[in-house]
């Protein structure tokens, strides 16, 4: 080794693979994963499974820069495989289990996927069809017996666990390609670097309010935010319980059975729990922190959740291009009955720079709407094979999130809407989120979506689409009058439809694109 190499190593950073090895190389007897069959995997067990999966993947040719995709419902094997993949220094792409075959094929082709790891119970036929369609997809690996490809779990079971070793990685190495929801067009492959992944973990460790004893329930997809908690939980000597997905009774039962102290959900999951007829049958008192994010929450419904479950809610705001944590609203900042505070996404964490900018890229005054823009080590490395979209989204040295917010008292940000969702009616700007928040205050309303529809007189007219709570009624005129009273005539809907359900994205967000398409030819 020459002097130059030695000097570079002297100050070389610690990244996610090193943190993973560290977390799995100490206190081996502590619980790490609780399984449905009653078994408890210790940190030592998880280390050994990571080792055998790493050896199996290496034997099968997975190595640095190999493009690997995972298609599976929630199961513990995802944690073993993703941990092992981190140690191979390959590049991982999670595929959302609720996606379509065409969604998967697009991501596989766009990302240049060579290896697909899949759940044979649910996705064997998908794997077979993808391999037939995608010439670059060379290897299929299954979490169990399979009629196509290779049983990865069986190979791993034959191997002897060994010591874990982290690869030497650089800050700008791409360790993952994450595909956005695609509600505004074809999904974009977001280049997740080692720098970005490390910042995500560090911020979650320092800024999230974890319980003293962590028994964390995973009920959101491990293909997305669900897996982001693994390393922070391990670093804090906590344990995970993994459910196949979100189902209200299963979630409440698991909280009671395993005495869960934290979980991560999206707002629609909170609504489903509160509205379930069996809500009061389970002991949920062990919950200390409910982390929620991914989409806007109704402040009225959040206030109800606090009243019924206590001051246990912690909001995080981010987007895939700046993962998991740009701002937070801590448990103690959820002021009961203060709907303005509960409509906030909190304040920026100190590890990123956040500004509200106008169309010219200049900061706006407090109280004026501006686009949330972010920079710092958390920000991803741009979009795969999309230089023009990368240049637009990262213009001027900022990540432009597309979310419009207002900075209020004490620096709290309140997101008023997505830039693309703004309605221009009669020459005035209307942000649907503000109309939705007013309508959601009515006790008969379970969910609401507001969009603009074509109108000869106004250009666009404000339309609200409402789902009522079971057994409740309200007429359109009452809701229109409520908005007119609270926000004025411009923001009052010109029409309201009542429906059984609103279109939702794979990630549990209200699908505004789908809602607009539904009313594209209607007034």
Q: What would you call the shape?
A: globular
In terms of per-residue confidence, which ranges show pLDDT below 50 for 5 or more consecutive residues? none
Spatial gap, N to C terminus: 72 Å
Beta-strand residue percentage: 15-25%
The level 1 CATH classification of the largest domain is: Alpha Beta
The helix content is 25-40%
The CATH architecture name of the largest domain reads 3-Layer(aba) Sandwich
Overall pLDDT confidence:
92
Helix and strand composition category: alpha/beta
How many independent structural domains? 3
* Order of strands in the sheet with most strands: 2-1-11-10-12-13-14-15-16
CATH T-level topology of the largest domain: Rossmann fold
């Amino acid at each position: 080794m020459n002097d130059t190499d030695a000097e570079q190593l002297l100050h070389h950073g610690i990244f996610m693979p090193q943190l993973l090895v560290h977390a799995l190389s100490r206190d081996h007897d502590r619980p790490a994963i609780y399984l449905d069959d009653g078994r408890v995997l210790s940190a030592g067990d998880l280390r050994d499974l990571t080792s055998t999966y790493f050896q199996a993947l290496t034997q099968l040719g997975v190595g640095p820069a190999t493009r690997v995709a995972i298609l599976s419902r929630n199961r513990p094997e995802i944690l073993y495989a993703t941990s092992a993949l981190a140690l191979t220094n390959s590049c991982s792409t999670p595929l959302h289990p609720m996606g379509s075959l065409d969604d998967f094929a697009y991501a596989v082709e766009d990302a240049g996927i060579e290896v697909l790891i899949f759940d044979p119970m649910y996705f064997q036929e998908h794997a077979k069809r993808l391999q037939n369609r995608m010439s670059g997809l060379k290897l299929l690996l299954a979490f169990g017996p399979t009629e196509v490809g290779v049983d990865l779990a069986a190979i791993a079971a034959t191997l002897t666990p060994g010591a874990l070793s982290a690869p030497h990685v650089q800050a700008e190495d791409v360790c993952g390609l994450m595909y956005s929801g695609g509600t505004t067009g074809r999904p974009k492959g977001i280049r997740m670097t080692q720098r970005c992944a490390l910042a995500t973990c560090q911020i979650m460790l320092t800024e999230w309010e974890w319980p003293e004893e962590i028994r964390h329930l995973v009920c959101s997809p491990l293909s997305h935010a669900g897996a982001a908690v693994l390393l922070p939980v391990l670093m804090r000597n906590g344990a995970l319980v993994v459910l196949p997905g979100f189902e209200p009774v299963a979630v409440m039962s698991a909280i009671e059975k395993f005495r869960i102290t934290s979980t991560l959900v999206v707002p629609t999951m909170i609504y489903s729990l509160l509205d379930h007829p069996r809500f009061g049958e389970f002991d949920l008192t062990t919950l200390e922190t409910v982390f929620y994010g991914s989409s806007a929450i109704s402040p009225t419904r959040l206030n109800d959740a606090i009243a019924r479950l206590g001051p246990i809610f912690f909001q995080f705001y981010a987007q895939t291009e700046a993962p998991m944590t740009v701002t937070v609203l801590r448990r103690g900042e959820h002021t009961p009955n203060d709907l303005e505070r509960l409509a906030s996404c909190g304040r920026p964490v100190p590890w990123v720079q956040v500004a509200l900018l106008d169309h010219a890229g200049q900061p706006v005054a407090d109280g004026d709407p501006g686009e949330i823009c972010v920079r710092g080590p958390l920000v991803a490395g741009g979009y795969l094979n999309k230089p023009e979209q990368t240049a637009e989204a990262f213009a001027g040295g900022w990540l432009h999130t597309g979310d419009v917010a207002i900075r209020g008292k004490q620096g709290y940000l309140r997101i008023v809407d997505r830039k693309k969702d703004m309605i221009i009616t009669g020459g005035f700007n209307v942000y649907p989120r503000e109309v939705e928040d007013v309508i959601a205050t009515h006790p008969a309303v379970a969910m609401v979506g507001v969009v603009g529809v074509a109108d000869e007189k106004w250009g666009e007219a404000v339309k609200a689409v409402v789902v009522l709570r079971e057994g409740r009624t309200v007429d359109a005129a009452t809701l229109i009058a409520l908005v007119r009273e609270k926000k004025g005539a411009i923001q009052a809907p010109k029409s309201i439809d009542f429906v059984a359900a609103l279109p939702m994205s794979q990630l549990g967000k209200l699908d505004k694109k789908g809602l607009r398409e539904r009313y594209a030819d209607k007034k």
